[in-house]
Amino acid sequence: MKSRISDYIQLAKLRLATLVVYSAGLGYGLAILNSKIEIFEWDIFIYLILGGFLVTGSSNGFNQVIEKELDKKMERTKNRPLPTNRITIAEGIIVSTVLGVIGLYFLYQINFLSFILGIIALLSYVVVYTPLKQITPLSVFVGAFPGSIPPMIGYVALTGELGLAPGILFLVQFVWQFPHFWAIAWKSSEDYKNGGFKMLPFGQEKDQKTAFIIFFYTLFIIPAGMLPYAAGISGITSMILSVLLGIYFLKPAYQLYKSQADEDALKLMFASFAYLPLVFLFYFLDKLFLTLYF
């Protein structure tokens, strides 16, 4: 029983889903602080967290069902439950469907817009992004859309409508995803080649041209990180911290451009892991401080 639960956790990639839920939760918190609503609605928050976990788990599960044969060819994925037949295709489909239906039901309990955004994130990830990974490097651009929806869902969970603030939170996470995924793709390029995936800007070429594109896109992290201050979503302290984090993020991207070394791609990957949770936390804490004391 314990091993079966562990297999389901691997199928849903619950550790990855944690970051999704984290940004959605902070999006919800920022919406509360910016709308001056004093009541924290725990039922809405719980629906948001559970819905986010389950819809993300469903997306990851369907992704692994579709890529079962490809996962067998890659070192990093060959021991997953589906390639090793610890979970059958039919079981993977059933589990992923149940997770998706329940997750979307929870989002529907929040409001209709959260439900629609959840459907868009699920379908665009599974139906569009997943097959495109074998066809074109533009898959990273397509995949950045569902990957950026969580903070937007968090914000509209309170407001029930789209607007500048959820759009900016979407944009911050959208810009972040390019250097994040390209750093992973650079480090795992041989594996991706074996699986037939084209995840780097020019397929799987690890050269200076590719490294320059990664560095160039990473530059946009800094102005994107300043937008919440410009729009009044957060304060100047978090803006300054976001710039410092952006410089920290930019450094390994520049080193990768100079060296084209796997070690620098690894440093960039770890910098990306640090950047997003920290910058969203800074936005929230800064706005909380301003709300409480000014």
**Count, helices:** 13
Distance between the termini: 53 Å
Which structural category do the helix and sheet elements fall into?
A: mainly alpha
Main pleated-sheet profile: none
Rg, nearest Å: 19 Å
What does this 3D model show about the protein?
The protein is mainly α. The protein is built from 13 helices and no strands. Helix 3 runs parallel beside helix 6. It starts with a helix and ends with a helix. The model has no long low-confidence stretch (mean pLDDT 92).
In short:
By secondary structure, the chain is mostly helical.
Which descriptors apply to this entry?
mainly alpha, 294 residues
What are the SSEs and their pairings?
Elements: H1 2-12, H2 14-35, H3 42-66, H4 68-71, H5 89-110, H6 112-132, H7 139-159, H8 164-187, H9 189-195, H10 208-219, H11 221-230, H12 236-259, H13 262-293
Helix pairs in contact: 2-3, 2-7, 2-13, 3-5, 3-6, 3-7, 5-6, 6-7, 7-8, 8-10, 8-11, 8-13, 10-12, 11-12, 12-13
